[in-house]
Structure prediction request, 223 residues.
Amino acid sequence: MQKKISRTQRFKAVINWFEQNVPIAETELKYGNPYELLVAVILSAQCTDKRVNMITPLFFEKFPNAYSLSQGTEEDVFNLVRSCSYPNNKTKHLIGMAQKLINDFNGTVPDDVNLLQQLPGVGRKTANVIVSVAFEKPALAVDTHVHRVAARLGLTTKARNPLDTEMQLLKFIPENRLNIAHHWLILHGRYICVARKPKCEQCGLKPFCKYYQQIESGKVINI
Prediction:
């Protein structure tokens, strides 16, 4: 059985483990500049990064910048993104995003979370990814993986939604670790702490994981 530890101790243990075992953690999306990352993140909603990386090379050949995309037709954009999830909505979001970038931001992707959320197809999670990854500002993007892993580990308590998760994590993760913490949690959720059958036997975080503690005690839980 695990020894009971405080929330602060749990955060410290988790961060220390990641620092020692995953010193480098980065986005798996391929991009060359903030515009390309913004397109890739919009496409990645409910779609794998692997699939997005298959789409974007041809996409960026056709639409290398916000101006060219703002002039694109829905047919042209749809044909390039049709293999990802929700291609109709993403087509409209991408064109609308580019047009707003040209009209309101002189074609430049803003480095502010609130300004980014004015763009079609850009919610808080996407905005945080852009600010954190493209501009290296302290921000913590929360997607379904981060939301799930944080809850299972016991880093969050009864978080009702991704925003609640973000606010709880921000209280305990040092500002200089926020950027990499997003990647630690998302990659852990993508490959180890998966949704249906978490690979607890492969996980080095077992000693301080609430989910695993409950499994050991025989309790049935769904997180």
